[in-house]
Amino acid sequence: MIAASTYKRIPNIISRTSVKPTQFIRLVTTTKTPPSSSPTGLGNPSPKAVPIDKEDTEAPGFIKAKRAPFGIETKVYNNEGIEAQDDDKFLTPSPYPHPDFTEAGVYRVKFTHRPPVTVGDKVSYYGTMFCRKCFDFVTGYAVPPKDQPDKYIGTRWEMTEGKWMTRCIFLEAVAGIPGSVAGLIRHLHSLRMLTRDKAWIQTLNDEAYNERMHLLTFIKIGKPSWFTRTIIYVGQGVFTNLFFMVYLMNPKYCHRFVGYLEEEAVRTYTHLLAELNVPGKLPDFEKMIIPTIAVQYWDELTPESSFKDLILRIRADESKHREINHTFANLEQYVDRNPFALEIKGLDKPQPNNNLDVVRPEGWERKDLYL
Ligand SMILES: [Fe+2]
Ligand SMILES: [Fe+2]
Q1: Residues 197, 191: contact at Cβ < 8 Å?
Q2: How far is the CA of 132 from the centre of ligand 2 (A)?
């Protein structure tokens, strides 16, 4: 029997619509900033009084960092800065409640790769890698060899807190596009052809929402420069139109392309987590509080959760996007049901779901699915 998983979420939606009082009062009850970091030296001032918009990386509200030429660095907020701009007044219940991830599940996520087989797979994979290599070169990103973890310190390849934020903000701003475009195209297809969509749209919109929540969380931690904003602005125009056109012609390989992008997202967040595990490597992230918007979105996070706890959840989200998009690329577009959203009970073999208990990082093959 087929039952939309939306119905299963009703209790969850209800629980999320109730305001969590502890989260909303965190701004006035929880201050993790050490007294010594007060700009006045007179204890913790009112967070709202911090002048976070001063264009100076040494202004109260930001961590002190080296300035890049032309001011193109992303400035990272300190705890006072994060609290000062934590706009708890307008937090709304999530239209796509986040599934529960276990602690063991988020730690189990690792980088995996689906070897490209068909020509379409190869175009998708090498296209992804070409974009990634160009972006890495331009932004000065490299993963140091395991036996030389300090190889890039002091060079343009060293990853500082500001550079991590530039990378995360840019990539999340792009990552929210495919799910939204694909969802729109399938929505229009359903209207135009007077037919059911078999629940792909909700998962695609959920993915786009999830990526936007990553972005909204990161912009509470880092403030991108005029340069990054310009690249995001222009990049969105180009990528959205390109993805729209290609998705109309070949949705299957668009999902494969996104699957490979998500593989790279998992790789990047795994690198960030490895750096967070080295004491003193990213000291400003180690002692950072997380924004209220993240506490509200991920059920397992609390106001006391660390930046690492947050990145573990974001990496797990990327791993589910990887699995979902590789699976979608294996399915008959506009024919097969979405097995992540339409659940069939009582089957004799495992089927996909939105949690981390049963996963196929390289995507579920069509022959293994009841469709
Ligand atoms: Fe993301
Ligand atoms: Fe993603």
Answers
A1: no
A2: 14
Global pTM?
Answer: 0.84
Residue tagged 């089957």 (tokens): 347
Tell me the β-bridge partners of 238.
Answer: none
The neighbourhood of ligand 2, an ion, using CB within 5 A, equals 175, 262, 318, 321
CB atoms within 10 A of CB 236: 14
Query: What digits encode the pLDDT tens for the residues 259-311?
Result: 999 999 999 999 999 999 999 999 999 999 999 999 999 999 999 999 999 99
Q: Do 183 and 201 contact (CB within 8 A), yes or no?
A: yes
Q: How far is ligand 2, taken at its centre, from the CA of residue 37, in Å? A: 35
Which H or E run includes 5? helix 5-8
* In the chain, domain spans: 2-368
Q: Please give the distance, rounded to the nearest whole angstrom, from the Cα atom of residue 76 to the centre of ligand 2.
A: 23
Distance of alpha carbon 213 from alpha carbon 314, whole angstroms: 10
Question: Which bound ligand lies closest to the C-alpha atom of 171?
Answer: 1
β-bridge partners, 342: 4
- Among the bound ligands, name the one nearest to the CA of residue 178: 2
Identify the architecture of domain 2-368 in CATH.
Up-down Bundle (1.20)
Q: How far apart are CA 205 and CA 262, in angstroms?
A: 16
Going from the Cα of 265 to the center of ligand 2, the distance in angstroms, rounded, reads 7
Structural contact between residues 217 and 294, judged by C-beta atoms closer than 8 angstroms = yes
